[in-house]
């Protein structure tokens, strides 16, 4: 079986549901890896770091998301299989365990999720929901409301350690909150001076990504310098970017996705006819496979867009 890897079990200091987040460096993390047996020649393929999305619990809207590396890897299993000749996908668990409202059964069957709400120290890590950050509102000194991305700095330090220990990586692939994080990761790998966690100490082997693949990605309201906006001449990000957006996405609409597209110098935008999910019908599997196969070619226009499909567009189910 083709290898894909899961990074699990972040340090115990993260297991506080983000009730208090302090600064951290990459040395604070002790990560372990769970992987399948590799097939011959897997080291000759491009290695991708993959960031999952966040669980969003809503009884009213019936929103459903995957929420950790194990569940996301299952959701995109068809894509993994189609691309296995061209890339080695490394699925990374976000470092923050999140607490969500309990249900009668302690699981999220109604949200098409295997995650559990009543997790304990003995719970399988593959069932625990995680996040890259939690967004909260905070009233500033002048009375204005500010958005705080709690846990973001810890996630950046965590990803720096992943790159140091498991890299170098050729590209980054993310969905929803994971895509937002993947875009920032692409930015700071391209320009390490934008983030202390990536500039000190300097990275030894990791080069700018050959591409960032952003599914339902959005730009978050952090300092604009993380996207290059604060630099002289307002330089945009030069890392090759693929933005896959859903025409009926009610979670990440154009008002959120297009500002991220505009942060890149030469973005490629490909639309699908569905909502908030990673498209995985055959035409899309073939597209992703061809895209990764041609990752070394700077002219990604040689990879044609997915052919239109008459199939009902739905997200992959576990």
Automatic annotation (TrEMBL):
The keyword Hydrolase applies. GO terms for molecular function: hydrolase activity. Coiled coil: none annotated. GO terms for cellular component: cytoplasm; nucleus. Keywords: Hydrolase. Residues 65-286 form the Serine hydrolase domain. InterPro entries: AB_hydrolase_fold, FSH-like_dom, LovG. Residues 298-318 are annotated as: Disordered. It holds the Pfam family FSH1. This is Serine hydrolase domain-containing protein. The keyword Hydrolase applies. Gene3D superfamilies: alpha/beta hydrolase. PANTHER family: ESTERASE OVCA2 (PTHR48070:SF6). It comes from Austropuccinia psidii MF-1.
């Amino acid at each position: 079986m083709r290898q894909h890897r899961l990074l699990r079990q972040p340090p115990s200091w993260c297991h506080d549901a983000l009730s208090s987040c302090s600064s951290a460096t990459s040395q604070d993390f002790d990560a372990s890896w769970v992987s399948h047996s590799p097939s011959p020649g897997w080291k000759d393929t491009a290695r991708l770091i993959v960031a999952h999305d966040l669980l969003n619990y809503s009884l009213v809207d019936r929103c459903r998301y995957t929420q950790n590396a194990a569940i996301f890897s299952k959701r995109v299993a068809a894509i993994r299989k189609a691309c296995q000749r061209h890339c080695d996908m490394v699925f990374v668990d976000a470092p923050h365990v999140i607490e969500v409202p309990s249900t009668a059964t302690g699981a999220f069957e109604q949200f098409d999720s295997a995650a559990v709400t009543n997790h304990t120290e003995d719970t399988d890590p593959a069932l625990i929901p995680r996040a890259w950050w939690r967004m909260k509102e905070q009233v500033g000194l002048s009375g204005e409301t500010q958005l705080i991305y709690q846990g973001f700095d810890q996630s950046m330090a965590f990803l720096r350690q992943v790159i140091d220990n498991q890299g170098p990586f050729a590209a980054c692939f993310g969905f929803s909150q994971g895509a937002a994080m993947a875009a920032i990761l692409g930015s700071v790998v391209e320009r390490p001076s934008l983030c202390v966690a990536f500039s000190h100490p300097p990275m030894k082997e990791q080069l700018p990504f050959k591409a960032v693949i952003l599914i339902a990605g959005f730009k978050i309201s952090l300092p604009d310098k993380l996207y290059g906006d604060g630099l002289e001449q307002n330089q945009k990000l030069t890392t090759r970017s693929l933005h896959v957006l859903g025409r009926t996405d009610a979670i990440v609409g154009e008002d959120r996705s297009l500002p991220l597209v505009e942060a890149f110098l030469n973005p490629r935008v490909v639309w699908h006819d569905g909502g908030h999910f990673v498209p995985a019908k055959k035409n899309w599997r073939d597209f992703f496979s061809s895209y990764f196969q041609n990752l070394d070619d700077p002219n990604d226009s040689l990879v044609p867009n997915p052919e239109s499909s008459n199939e009902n567009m739905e997200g992959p189910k576990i």
